[in-house]
Each structure stands twice: as C-alpha cells, then as structure tokens.
Design a protein that fits this description.
This protein has 266 residues and is mostly helical. It is built from ten helices and two strands; from the N terminus they run αααααααααββα. Strands 1-2 form a two-stranded antiparallel ribbon. The longest helix has 35 residues.
C-alpha cells in the first residue's frame, strides 16, 4: 500500500535551490580550508556537504514518496549538519584565545574549553543520529524512543551553544584591545550562534509535536526555520567573517607560543 512518508509532495524547486546554494558555499568553504590548511574546519565542511547530500536524497525521494531508505537518508542528513557546524565554531574560540594570548580571560579553563563544548556536541550528534534512525521505525515504541532521543540531543545542543555564546561574549568583552580581525570573528560567532539556536528550537518543537504534528506535515517550516538559517550561517562564515582566513595559525610546540596572522597585523 502506498504511503507518503513526507505527508506532502516535496517542492523540487525549493530543494534544488537549497542543494545548489549549499553546494556553492561548501565549495567555497572547502577551497578556503584547503588553502589555509585548516584541518580544524573539517567538521564544518562535513556539515555543508551533508546538507547537499540531504537535498539530493530529498530530490530522489520526490519520485519515491514511500521509499523508506531515501526518507531516512534525507532526514538524517538534514537533521545532523548543525552539530558539525557547531563543532568547528567551538574550536574557533580556542584558536581565537590562542591568537590573543589571553586564556586568563576565559570563564572556564582553556584546557577544558574545547573538550566541554565539542564533547557536548558529539553527545548531541550521537543522540540525534540514533533518535533520527529510530524515528523511521514501524514500531511505535521505537518511534517514541527515537523522538525522545532527538529532543534530548537538541536540548543539549541548545544549552551547550548558549553557554558557548556567553563564554565568547565575556571573553571578547574582557579584552582591553582587539584587532579588526578579532572583532570580525566575534561578530561572526555572534551571528551564527542565534541562527543555530533558532534552528534547534524549531527542531525541538517539531519533534515534540511528533511525526503527524503541524511542523512535520508542512514543508515551509523546514525551509524557513532550518534551511534558511543554515544557509545564512554558512554564507556569513565564508563571505563576511571567514575564521578560516583570519585564523591561519602557524602551530608552534606550545599552544601559548602559537603565532598567527592576527597578531602580526595588530
């Protein structure tokens, strides 16, 4: 028996635009990261290309509305990218601290900074991935468990990124003097943060309503509260405030002795 897993006919025009824009931005980010040898930006690249793959799977799904395999792929590949975006943004703070040589201005020890935020991000990613997979089960108990896991994962992401933004703002506020590059990176983080939070709140509400809820059964919400914020984030961190370009670190033997282009321009 035919059953439309999407609850509607996915718009080929919207998914095509989303796929093309994410592909272009991902190409740009990949080029910048390779040029700067920014291995630490790899997670962000993974997130961008996952968005592309998610929309490709969604496109395939428009001709196979009852195909579970393509539905699972597009669900997971559109659900998980922000966790990868967050991981690289978390690591940006540590490199920013290294750039200014002021770890004493952090509200948490620098050695715990990346571990705390990235650790929370990995936990969030695992919970969302497991929950998203269970959501496609035909078993009601598994669906219910999957729904709860995704919500918990998203809540962890919300709390962790909120604390990260507070940490970043306090750190930047305590700096006696900053370069233009440092200010730009802080602005970039300040723009990307709310976009991730908006998207996370949307997903929490979506999964709280359930598979037959209003948000899950209306396509416009996906593009307004998920696709658009993530496009703006990837655009801002490539065109306006590219941390990969500004934080081209030349590693030394000790983290406290690392010197980067920001310091040279100060």
């Amino acid at each position: 028996m035919f059953y439309n897993l999407y609850h509607y006919d996915p718009s080929k025009a919207l998914l095509s635009v989303g796929c093309i824009l994410f592909a272009l931005l991902s190409i740009g980010h990949t080029w910048s990261a390779v040029k700067a040898r920014a291995v630490w930006w790899t997670a962000f690249l993974v997130g961008g290309w996952m968005e592309v793959a998610g929309f490709i799977a969604r496109g395939i799904g428009t001709t196979q509305l009852s195909a579970l395999s393509t539905y699972i792929v597009q669900t997971l590949f559109l659900l998980l990218p922000p966790a990868f975006f967050s991981a690289s943004i978390y690591m940006t703070l540590r490199r920013l601290v290294v750039a200014t040589a002021r770890p004493d201005l952090l509200i948490i020890p620098m050695r715990l900074c990346t571990r705390l935020f990235v650790g929370a991000d990995v936990l969030s990613l695992l919970l969302q991935g497991a929950g998203g997979g269970l959501q496609t089960s035909t078993n009601d108990a598994s669906k219910s468990l999957g729904q709860k896991l995704v919500i918990v994962g998203l809540c962890i992401q919300l709390v962790a990124f909120t604390f990260f933004l507070i940490t970043t703002w306090i750190f930047s506020g305590r700096l006696a003097r900053t370069t233009q590059e440092v200010r730009k990176i802080v602005i970039g983080i300040s723009i990307s943060g709310p976009l991730i939070l908006i998207r996370s709140v949307y997903r929490v509400v979506e999964y709280a309503q359930g598979y037959t809820g209003y948000i899950m059964t209306h396509e416009w919400a996906l593009y307004v509260f998920d696709t658009l914020p993530m496009l703006l984030l990837t655009f801002a961190l490539f065109i306006l405030f590219p941390p990969v370009e500004m934080l081209a670190i030349k590693a030394a033997t000790e983290p406290s002795r690392e010197h980067i282009s920001i310091e040279e321009k100060a």
